[in-house]
Amino acid sequence: MSLESMIHTETIQQAKKPSLLQRNSSQLLQHASKFSLRRSLTTKVSTSSPIQQQQPRPSVSFSSASSSYNPPREYIPPPPFLTEDTSSNKTPNSVSDNRILSPIPENRQQSLFEKQKNQPHHYSAFLSSIAYEFKRRIILSDRIKNGIEYHNIFDGKEAVDKLKEIIGTTDRLIALRVGRALESQRFFHDVNYENRLLDEISEIYQFHEMFWQGYNSGSSSNGSYSVTSTVITDYYEDEFDDESHSSATFTQQSQEDDISLPNGIYTELTHCYTPTCRDRYPCYSYTCPKRERMRRRPHSVDTREKRVTAYLYEVEKHQLLWSQTVDEYIVLATPSLERKRQETIFELIYTEEDFLSSLNYVIKMWIEPLKKEDIIPKERRDEFIDQVFSNWIEIRDISRKLSGALRARQLQHPIVSHVSDIMETHVAQFEPFLYYGARQHRAKHIFERERYKNIRFALFAERTERDIASRKLELNGYLTKPTTRLGRYTLLLDKIQELTAVNHPDKEHIPYIIHAIKALLQKVNVATGVAKNRFDLELIHAHVSFRNKRDRMNLRLLEKHRVVIKQGVLRKSSSMESTAYQVILFDHYLVTAKVKVIHAVEHYSIQKRPIPIELLGVNLPPAESTIQTPRCPVAARIGPDQTVPQETKQGLPITFYHQGSNAYDTFTLYAATELVRKSWNTAIQNQREIKFKRKPVFDVVDTVKRYEFFAEIAVHHMVIFDQGRSYMLATDAGVYVGPYGSVSGIPRKILPIDRVTKVHVFEEYQLLLVLADQVLWQYPLGITLNGQDQHSILNFGRKIRQNVPFFHVGDCLDQTLICVPRQFGVRGSEIDLFEPTMPKTEMKKKSLLGRLSIRSSTTLSLTNTQVVPLKPVYSPYDVWAIDTTKSLMLLTTPIGIIAIDMKTKKPDALLDPLDKYLQFITKFEKVDTQMTMNPSFKRISVFPVPDGNYLVCYNKYAFYIDKKGRRTKHKFKIEWEGHPTSFAYHHPHVIAFEHHFIEIRSVNDVRDEMKYIGSVT
After folding, report:
1. Dihedrals φ, ψ of 535, to 5°?
2. Which residues contact 729 (CB under 8 A, 6 or more apart)?
3. Residue 794 DSSP class
4. What's the pLDDT band for 97 if we cut at 50, 70, 90?
């Protein structure tokens, strides 16, 4: 078959079905040339109806111009050969053959596609894809270098390890070159802007400010992707000729601003455009990447020019040594050790002059033009210069004086005798470095923010950084120089001191100078940390929101002592491709949020209710990692375009839970490594210990001494009597009594009754009430306490009533009332009232046990200890709890609190239903929408406060009302962290009792920090 007939046949097939392949630029160029297309190439994936998708071919165009690339955050370019599923779009007239257009047999095609299923889901030749994966996988930490603390950094060895993993090779040199290609596009940089990427653990790097902000969230987005590819021909070239650029552009539309990743095609890692060209055997093409690698000579050694940045190389390539600036006879007459010392002193002098030159450059090329020209709006121009450059001119003046003094000493004699006196004088004036260092983090952020939103400033910055005076160093590199210069002083002075002879003045004085500089560096680190913490808190506070309305709360991020302890990215599932959450550990809360970058600003959407540190629980479940083995054997020799066996990335689970709360506040996230997981657990436990070491509001006192009362029974109730010297316990095994503070402290059983849930002691009436198995009993207190035979004491009991869910004892209208509700019926509930009638004892003994011991048995008869029934009270609803005031009986019901006037016996709602400030409660207190409460909650408490108002405590909220039931102090509302079942009031605190902990809150200011006692057992 002739070539023309083959092209004609394939053209007809293309007219019957859509394109089945998404190819890289080389493939598309090849097939486009087959169809005699000579312009640009842009494939459009149709999303129209099936009828519209029957067009003969996608629109195609060619362009040789490179355009900008704005990928989505989870942009994953396709592998070289991906088929498009068109099964759902087939029509009766369409051809069912979906094989790729290739002379490869079908069985060979199937094996190729099976092999590609095991390859990484990114094309390792696209720098944008490598950059995204590198940013997602690298683990950041904090380290100290030259006495300066750096945050969110990684070292060179870690970078090369991750790049090896991403591009699927064992060759560290290839990974290093790819890393330098990313670095050349300002993806990351050396912390001192001195070295390029080096495969060394001692060299540390950090991401560029905008990349760090833009991709810190790791959030995903769906939609089409875009690719702009630039062919990288040599890893150490900073600029490329126009002829070396080739691009294939796909448009990306996003609702939010995306930050451009590094872009380009690293040709050494590209796949050949011929589908049959696999493994170690190159195809017939002379331009095949495999064949080109076989012809390529070994790479040269990593020279100094390739190791350092362009700025440092420009600075050092024309710099002379000390031995080159003095006469030769002086060099020959100088001992070897002294020659090294003079070289170091000379380095101190010329580096100080270079530092001064950098300071002058910033003043001349940045500060002065910004002051004079209309680049920054006039109303905020001075503020911007002050925030970004701070006291730059003051530091310049210090450096100018120091540099002048050192150069004057150098001119006095070719061999400098000593420098300690000069350094000691000027180091004492280094205090402005502290002020500058504390503001550096804010300065970088404001600079990048202005560059992003102000097009005039962006153009000015681009033009200035390209100026020859910048020596190929961006402004951020210059802004770090004052701080890094302090660390450089210590290194140079330490080396001078080491090379100085004994009994020399420098030998004696330089250690003190180094100590002073290191002390200043320590202050700089502390001040920088405090300032960075405060600035980060301000940013989070200004851009925080809550996903769920029920979780809204005041995080109090702007309080004086608030601190960000730790923050980082954890994943939603064990797959490291899953949704990323930004987890922030403050000193008082743990917050889980999603981060969106809008106009270069991070916005935090809190996904879960923040958990207080005191109630935060952490669990580290075990996790297993699986190995994914390729279906096809791996070649003995792994080339750069081949993938190594990949270990399936399984995150390690870490479970956070709210102690005492429900399952909504329990969630599991996944850390990338065991080190990250343990660091989170350690940080949380340390902060919990700090919280619990604070001075408590109330002291917890053991009523029963530990390890002295062993009983496998449940204790339901406890009362204190006899002026606090005795206590009584209601348990499942009976009633126990114990003298508090006795020698043994072991309680003893006085009543062998099963399932006792509540007891009450009437000291004045010598009466004991016991609720056991829903039966209310009365016992004479004296006989019960002093009786020797437990079973005989049961004969003295008298049954008051059966089917008693609970009872309440309180004073109302100058009467002591025993309130016993009946079970709810069709017409409502009745509350039976009883009153104890035994005459009050007037004995003077202090101890109740002592009084009881001298009373005769005749005075303790049951005829003197009885309760008299009174007229019952009616309630229209089921009664959950009862409380009393001077004239009211307060009933907790399914629709809230019912207040019964004990004079008229008329029930009414306690809260005013017309008060708009009580709508968050009263909207549920209706007959048709009964309030949803915790099933274990059976009580609403009301406490009078000194100002005449009442504090009402629900299971979720606490607030103030007046005597008419209207809300007061509208801004005061307590939201309980747990689900309390009972409350107590001790001014100025209200105490909420949960099953697992006790919560203590201030009744004066809801903003006061909450305190807790106890924890989950």
Report:
1. -65, -45
2. 715, 717, 718, 735, 736, 737, 738, 747
3. G
4. very low
Report the alpha-carbon distance of residue 169 to residue 200 in Å, rounded.
Answer: 19
Please give the DSSP secondary-structure letter assigned to residue 403: H
For residue 787, the SS3 value is coil
Show the tokens assigned to 260: 């451009």
Strand partners, 282: none
Question: Three-state SS for 26?
Answer: helix
Counted residue by residue, the chain has a size of 1017
Residue type, 228: T
* Calpha distance 651→671 (Å, rounded): 5
- Give the Cβ contact number of residue 889 at 10 Å: 25
pTM: 0.65
Residue 460: per-residue pLDDT: 95
Tell me how far apart the alpha carbons of residues 791 and 993 are, in angstroms, rounded to a whole number.
35
Structure tokens at 937: 């909650």
DSSP 8-state symbol, 364? I
Cα–Cα distance for residue pair 896/890, rounded to 1 Å: 10
Residue in this structure with the two tokens 């945050």, named with its chain if needed: 151
- Looking at per-residue pLDDT, the higher value among 149 and 396 belongs to 396
Strand ranges, E, within 89-222: 141-145, 148-155, 188-190, 204-207
Give the dihedral of Cα atoms 499, 502, 508, 512; nearest 10 deg.
Answer: 40
Biggest CA pair distance of the chain? 130
pLDDT at 29: 37
Query: How many of the other CB atoms lie within 10 Å of CB of 305?
Result: 11
Strand (E) or helix (H) holding 217? none
The alpha carbons of the chain give a radius of gyration, in whole angstroms, of 40
- Give the pair of three-digit tokens for residue 735: 């009633």
Expressed in angstroms, the distance from the first to the final Cα of the chain is 83
Residues 6+ apart with CB under 8 A from 937: 955, 979, 980, 981
Question: What distances in angstroms separate CA 46 from CA 42, 94, 923, one per listed residue?
Answer: 13, 17, 51
Q: pLDDT by residue (tens digit) across 543-582?
A: 999 998 888 888 889 988 899 999 888 999 888 778 889 9
State the DSSP string of 253-285. Answer: --SS--PPPP--EEGGGPPPSSTT--TT---S-
Query: In the structure encoding, which two tokens stand for residue 212, read together?
Result: 């760090």
Which alpha helices (H) appear in 855-959, and where do they start and end? 919-922
What does the pLDDT look like over 833-890, one tens digit per residue? 999 886 544 444 444 444 444 343 434 444 455 788 999 998 888 888 898 888 889 9
β partners of residue 231: 265
Residue 769 to residue 776: CA distance in whole angstroms: 7
- Band (770; pLDDT cuts 50, 70, 90): very high
Q: Are 954 and 897 in contact (CB under 8 A)?
A: no
In order, the DSSP letters of 508-529 are HHHHHHHHHHHHHHHHHHHHHH
Secondary structure class of 489 (helix, strand, coil) = helix
Report how far residue 215's alpha carbon sits from residue 211's, in angstroms, rounded to the nearest whole number.
Answer: 6
Whether 133 shows a pLDDT value over 70: the answer reads: yes
- Rounded-to-integer distance, Cα 105 and Cα 94, Å: 22
Alpha helix positions (H), 46-117:
106-117
Cα–Cα distance, 250 to 603 (Å, whole number): 28
777 residue type, one letter: W
The per-residue b/e assignment along 367-396, b for 16 or more CB within 10 angstroms, e otherwise, is eeebeeeebbeeeebeebbebbbbbbeebb
The amino acid at 37: L
836 by DSSP, 3-state: which?
strand
Top-confidence residue, 294 or 13: 294
